[in-house]
Design brief:
The structure holds two protein chains of two kinds.
Chain A: H1 2-10, H2 15-35, H3 40-61, H4 65-89, E1 91-93, E2 96-101, E3 106-107, H5 109-127, H6 134-153, H7 157-173, H8 178-196, H9 198-202, H10 207-217, H11 226-240, H12 251-254, H13 266-299, H14 303-327, H15 345-370
Antiparallel strand pairs in A: 1-2, 2-3
Chain B: H1 11-44, H2 46-57, E1 58-63, E2 70-71, E3 77-89, H3 97-107, H4 112-124, E4 131-134, H5 139-147, E5 155-164, H6 172-175, E6 178-180, H7 183-191, E7 203-205, H8 208-212, H9 214-218, E8 222-228, E9 234-241, E10 248-251, H10 255-265, E11 270-276, E12 281-288, H11 294-297, H12 302-310, H13 319-322, H14 332-341, E13 351-353, E14 356-358, E15 365-367, E16 375-377, H15 379-384, H16 388-406, H17 431-437, H18 445-448, H19 452-459, H20 469-480, E17 491-496, E18 501-504, H21 517-530, E19 549-555, E20 578-585, E21 592-598, H22 604-621, H23 631-649
Parallel strand pairs in B: 2-10
Antiparallel strand pairs in B: 1-8, 2-3, 3-4, 3-5, 6-7, 8-9, 10-17, 11-12, 11-21, 13-16, 14-15, 17-18, 19-20, 20-21
Classes of the chains: A mainly alpha, B alpha+beta.
């Protein structure tokens, strides 16, 4: 009886993803204990966050993809509606309008878009699977642009990047023509090259506009503002060396040089205390999760499953890459947490729902295969 | 690859698989880039970042030494330090200073004066240092601010050491004061290569002993390596080299003598310098009026400054050290000794005094004080009764060159070398001096010439010569000590507080002079006669329990026209003559020599001499006069006492 119940509980979950997930959560809790100055406050509330997120994951994982497909459109519409609500009535916190007060609690609709948008696009592509034409990609691009524009307006560049990324990966996997992808990448590279030189840039734009973009791209031009975070993060990572300073021993961390050390900059804490070896362990865990995600993508049996699994996997990658890149100073500082390590309930729930989707897609394939 | 998918395994399926594999490469590429970055930071540049982290972490904080104390000869503290809490602001960390101060003002009272003071400091200070807004917070104020501290970033309560001069006005002109280090001080410190030792120090000796003995008092600054957090707050001390407190100055000065002198002066202006002739140790050094040096420590506010600066009584003027006054008749004993030593007179040589002296072939009369003259005057009487005519003629006979050769033996016309900054040299006039003095084109050639008449006035201490009370006291001490001169010094010993070892200020004689004992005997005997029957200061000799030698003097403030008569009653107080008295006692083995100057005090015997008598009585016999001439003196004494008691609470 108990065994049966256990099987029922465990069946929706993918053992590989589950093990990696638990390993990452452990790493996260150990780091949070240090970043939180040996206080269990953050660890405990992150445990609660995790419990809630885990329940969400289990629930999503146990849904068949058909049901997921059927909620894609309503979810997307709800998400856009909420974004409009935020735009009109949202609460301002830290200079950005991100939260919507719905009486009982405050929600962050942009966060749910990270799931809703790839679902929507995957569903749309799936529906037009028989004949994907340029027109469909255009519609998809518009579906993508609407939430991204609202999130950018908040402003929340980090989330906008993640949402746009998730949508882009759906389009990419759906077969977006290389003739479009390659020029887009080239335009991106050229425009970055263009604004990096003030002389070049100021011929077309105002100086302050160029400077604002430059500071974003190269924080060292603003060492007391945005650059401060990156500089201190870089020092933390560099001073960690190969083996790190040891758990709870990071001076940058414990003397408060690292801002946001339990959230966006938690990687600086981890890297200072565990060094290059620790980084490699973390990257390995991420790669394992990502490869499992791509494997599920590869073997998904519906286009919806393929596109959604791929987009979610790549969003997870974007999370990790952008966060570690910005903390180590090769990417601009945008508010992206380190997945499964950074403190924060919302992103944890989003991430685990993503894992739940992956598990659902995988299980459905298996059921078809064996059932 | 032949798994059943809805899309089947056609062209699209392969396309899709390629795209997924490309994503896998993208992941590996991205993470590979991160690994490259981590390797660069954590392996190649590890040393650099390690250093960065360490310098982030470790701050070097100076440990400011305690400034040395200043105590009088009996160990009574004249300058000390106490800890008090101050409300400090770091301007570079506060966005709106004005608003912050206004907000703070709602919690604890902040006076406009304190605000002005703060802005003044801010204008002078470097960035990145905290500046006191309100000093000496009460416990209640500390509690109020501490409770709301979170509202005020950049505002903190700090414990600071404060300097205090419990005797206030009484010691202002000898102890001086410390003040905030100015740009000039900083340049000076840089020139002397002392900047490192002053790191963290906010104040420096500005005047008096505080300035002269700055090097002794300051001490050695220690170093603390502290771990600091990102806001610069010290978390813990990693390594500490303690500071070494400044040395304690033990003065030869007796504050009780000083206090008595102050009381005896009452509201009168003037100066009193008392010296131990056997060592040159200064026993009392008073300039009246004084000022409260405590006002200057953290920068005097402009209103108080205005008051002090504009006061007609010029309290900031150190009369004892820098005030130059004609010595009047107190110059006569020195003239007499010069005459004896240089052979211009024998003790018994007498003149018939008609009441005036006139240069050969001139109708100008140099008048004697006593109309009609003193009759037959020998050297003894010339001093005891203070006969001017005797000295007019003597000066005329000696000529200026002889006077100028002799008087430097008593320190006239040069600095005594006392351990106080800014001493005046006085004026021992000579033809060269006069030419130089009137060299400006404003003066005519006749004004620059040296006339025979010039020397005549000098004989009685009038004319161009002018000396400080300190110089007169010093000269008196040299006379008392039979010509053996010591450099006067206020500090007797310097104590190293860490080892409790003392360094004595060397009392080796500066000059011996080798006057003939019989000549000295004549002059001293005559000076003793000043307080004897027929002497000008006989009035103060009642009940004298020791032998005393003195000389009265009266220095003219305004010239009196030929034929006019000086009348104290009708002359404005500020234009009245200055009253001098020099004295030493006991004559056989002098223990104290002093000079008293009472500005506009009139005849020397009337005001200055009684003060001298009471001081000597007190110093030699411990007798404190019951009657205090002015109520103000009493108040000062009790105030001083009260402030001493206050200090004990601190």
């Amino acid at each position: 009886m108990i065994k049966h119940l256990w099987l029922r509980l465990i069946r929706p979950l993918d053992p590989w993803l589950l093990i990696i997930l638990l390993a990452l959560i452990c790493v996260g809790q150990i780091t949070l204990y240090s970043a939180g100055e040996r206080s269990f406050d953050r660890v405990e509330s992150q445990m609660i966050n995790f419990a809630v997120a885990f329940a969400c994951m289990w629930f999503v994982a146990s849904q068949p993809p058909q049901r997921l497909m059927s909620v894609a459109l309503p979810l997307y519409l709800l998400g856009v509606a909420l974004l409009v609500g935020v735009f009109l009535f949202g609460d301002v916190s830290k200079g950005a309008r991100r939260w919507l007060n719905i009486g009982v609690t405050r929600i962050q609709p942009s966060e749910m878009m990270k799931i809703a948008l790839p679902m929507m696009l995957a569903w749309y592509m799936h529906k037009h699977e028989a004949m994907l034409r340029v027109r469909d990609f255009l519609v998809a691009a518009i579906l993508l642009a609407i939430p991204v524009a609202f999130v950018l307006k908040q402003p929340d560049l980090g989330t906008a990047i993640l949402i746009a990324g998730s949508g882009f990966f759906v389009l990419y996997l759906a077969g977006l023509s290389w003739k479009l992808i390659v020029p887009m990448i080239l335009v991106g590279i050229v425009s970055i090259w263009f604004v990096m030189d003030l002389g070049r840039c100021s011929q077309v734009f105002h100086d302050y506009q160029c400077q604002r973009v430059q500071t974003l791209l190269d924080p060292s031009t603003d060492p007391l503002g945005k650059g401060y975070h990156t500089i201190q993060g870089t020092i933390a990572i560099g001073s960690g060396g190969v083996t790190g300073k040891g758990w709870l021993q990071g001076t940058q961390t414990h003397l408060d040089y690292i801002p946001e050390k339990t959230t966006d900059f938690v990687f600086a804490v981890y890297s200072e205390e565990f060094g290059l070896v620790g980084n490699l362990v973390l990257l390995t865990l991420y790669v394992l999760a990502l490869m499992r995600g791509l494997s599920i993508t590869m073997h998904a049996n519906t286009l919806f499953g393929k596109l959604l699994a791929g987009a979610i996997t790549m969003t997870f990658f974007t999370y990790a890459f952008v966060n570690m890149g910005m903390v180590s100073g090769i990417l601009p500082v945008v508010g992206v947490p380190l997945p499964l390590i950074s403190y924060g309930g919302t992103s944890l729930v989003t991430l685990l729902i993503g894992f739940g989707l992956l598990m659902s897609i995988r299980r459905h394939r298996a059921m078809i295969k064996f059932g | 690859m032949n798994r059943p998918t809805l899309k089947g395994s056609g062209q699209d399926g392969v396309q899709f698989q390629i795209r997924v594999i490309l994503l896998a490469f993208l992941i590996l590429l991205g993470f590979g880039g991160l690994i490259a970055r981590f390797t660069l930071l954590q392996v190649s540049r590890h040393d650099y970042y390690h250093t960065q982290a360490e310098s982030n972490r470790i701050g070097i904080a100076p440990v400011v030494p305690n400034r040395g104390l200043i105590v009088d000869r009996n160990g009574i503290v004249l300058a000390h330090n106490y800890t008090a809490y101050t409300l400090e602001l770091r301007p570079d960390k506060i966005e709106d200073l004005e608003a912050t101060i206004a907000e703070l003002g709602k919690i604890i009272p902040i006076l406009p004066k304190e605000k002005r003071q703060f802005y003044k400091l801010k204008a002078e200070s470097k960035n990145f240092e905290t500046l006191p807004l309100k000093i000496r917070l009460t416990d209640e104020e500390i509690a109020k601010v501490a409770a709301q501290n979170y509202r005020f970033p950049g505002v903190e309560i700090k414990a600071r050491l404060f300097r205090e001069y419990p005797y206030k006005e009484l010691t202002s002109h000898v102890i001086g004061y410390i003040g905030r280090i100015s740009q000039t001080d900083e340049d000076q410190l840089a020139a002397e290569n002392k900047v490192a030792n002053y790191r963290g120090t906010s104040h420096i000796g500005k005047n008096g002993l505080e300035q002269f003995y700055e090097n002794e008092l300051h001490g050695t600054t220690g170093v603390e390596e502290v771990e600091t957090d990102s806001s610069g707050r010290a978390i813990r001390v990693l390594h500490r080299t303690p500071s070494i407190s400044g040395n304690t100055l033990h003065l030869s000065l007796d504050i009780r003598v000083q206090q008595l002198a102050d009381e005896l002066f009452g509201d009168r202006r003037g100066a009193l310098v008392a010296i131990d002739p056997a060592t040159g140790g200064v026993l009392a050094f008073l300039s009246k009026p004084g000022f409260d040096p405590n006002l200057f420590i953290d920068g005097i506010d402009s209103q108080s400054w205005q008051e002090l600066n504009d006061s007609p009584f010029r309290p900031l003027n150190n009369r004892a050290l820098r005030g130059m006054y004609p010595p009047g008749s107190t110059f006569k004993p020195f003239m007499a000794l010069a005459a004896l030593e240089m052979g211009y007179r024998r003790p018994g040589d007498a003149i018939a005094d008609p009441g005036f002296f006139a240069l050969p072939g001139s109708s100008h009369r140099f008048r004697d004080d006593k109309p009609g003259g003193h009759g037959l005057v020998d050297m003894y009487k010339s001093i005891a009764a203070s006969c001017d005519t005797y000295y007019y003629r003597l000066a005329f006979d000696m000529g200026i060159d002889a006077i100028d050769r002799f008087m430097p033996k008593f320190g006239f016309g040069s600095q005594t070398g006392i351990d106080l900054p800014g001493e005046a040299t006085g004026i021992l006039p000579s033809p060269a001096w006069k030419r130089n003095r009137f060299s400006s084109p404003r003066f005519k050639e006749e004004q620059r010439k040296w006339y025979l008449g010039d020397v005549v006035s000098i004989g009685i201490g009038q004319g161009y010569n002018a000396y400080t009370p300190l110089q007169l006291a010093n000269a008196t001490a040299i006379m008392a000590n039979n010509g053996v001169a010591f450099q006067p010094h206020v500090v007797d010993r310097i104590e190293d507080v860490s080892t409790h070892t003392f360094r004595k200020i060397d009392p080796a004689p500066a000059a011996r002079n080798n006057f003939k004992p019989e000549n000295l005997e004549v002059v001293k005997h005559a000076m003793q006669g000043v307080v004897g029957p027929g002497g000008t200061a006989f009035g103060i000799s009642g009940g004298l329990e020791y032998t005393m030698a003195g000389k009265t003097g009266t220095a003219q403030v305004v010239g009196i026209k030929q034929g006019a008569k000086y009348n104290a009653a009708t002359t404005k107080e500020m234009h009245r003559d200055h009253s001098w008295f020099i004295a030493f006692a006991p004559v056989e083995q002098p223990k104290i020599a002093l000079a008293v100057l009472v500005e506009n005090g009139g005849f020397g015997a009337a005001t200055a001499a009684p003060i001298a008598r009471k001081i000597i009585d007190y110093y030699l016999l411990g007798k404190r006069p019951e009657i205090i001439p002015s109520g103000k003196g009493d108040a000062t004494a009790s105030e001083a006492k009260a402030s001493v008691e206050e200090n004990e609470h601190d």
